[in-house]
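Lab manual, section 2.4: Encoding a predicted structure.

Procedure: take the sequence of the chain (396 residues), apply the prediction step described in section 2.3, and record the output as structure tokens. A sample record is shown.
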Amino acid sequence: MFVSTPILHADLDAFYASVEQRDDPTLRGRPVIVGGGVVLAASYEAKAFGIRTAMGGAKARRLCPHAIVVPPRMSAYSVASKAVFEVFRDTTPLVEGISIDEAFLDVGGLHKIVGAPELIARRLRAQVLAEVGLPITVGVARTKFLAKVASGVAKPDGLLVVPADGELEFLHPLPVERLWGVGKVTAAKLHNLGIRTVGEVAALGETDLVLILGKAAGRHLHALAHNRDPRPVQVGRRRRSIGSQRALGRRERTPEDLDVILASLIDGVTRRLRDAHRACRTVVLRLRFADFTRATRSHTVIHPTSDTALLLSAARQLLTAALPEIAERGITLLGVSLTNLGNEDTIQLMLPFDDHTPGALDATLDRLKDRFGSSSVTRAALLGHDPGISVPLLPD
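Recorded output:
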């Protein structure tokens, strides 16, 4: 028996590493790590040794000394992602992308045209493999939450359909960590009370969960444990922020080091902002200190903009103000996000209207980088410096 209003959660397997293995046959079947300083992705062969995303590169190499470390190729991943999303949209117009490598698809209206949800999912998986050359896992259920859980259980390179009359039977034996919002801290609280499965969470009343976890988290987990998730697939949903960050490790960083990294981050996110035909008003600086605590600082400009120089100036003001705290506490991560996004037509026009405006310079540099690569044009301040690998933040 298939679900009556089916939602597919399609999730590419070890995406960055899979692209590398696709493009270099010598990497297939071998442990592959993308990124040296910090693991951006690991193949399933590498994951078998305990290597995980965001792990330090040195630790990853200790766990698997024979792993092959490759530098990230963000442009290749972007091209692959766009090709996969074309397959999604060929399957159904109701697609909600939630990251570069996963999406929800509403296939509820396709039963009479195409067939049952399992058939649709099998065709989608075969088409992604044939046209893009990548493995993809699909979960099918009546709610977005359960479809995502199903794909997680089915990984790697699998398909799992949760029947409408077997939802709780499937969900309740799973560990509490399968619930959205249950991280290490929440899991530890539940484990300390002897609660280890979703079914045991469901057996608690909402009032008890609120007392244990707080009002918002308690209500949230009570609903999910009973598979209550009314959210529809949202088509055309646009991200609320564009961001990137870099893990810095433990060594001391000078203000000049941090400025180089910040400039590189701003160059990347403003280029993505313009590629998306967006403008922003607020720059957010993200910091993680050596004691693992985090902080954010923000600055809002008067008019929406996509101008690199203006947004870098705002970010530098935030960094300068944070330097005393950084000197005292140390820093292990620096990131920036552009928020309060609007369409590019909200940008305040500048006089004179000629090719000497900052926007014209940004557009020219974007075209050069598109044609010759991101490193073809760089700031003089970055020469002789290693800005490191910046990791795009997931959209809000």
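Check your result against the sample. Confidence is low (pLDDT under 50) at residues 349-358.
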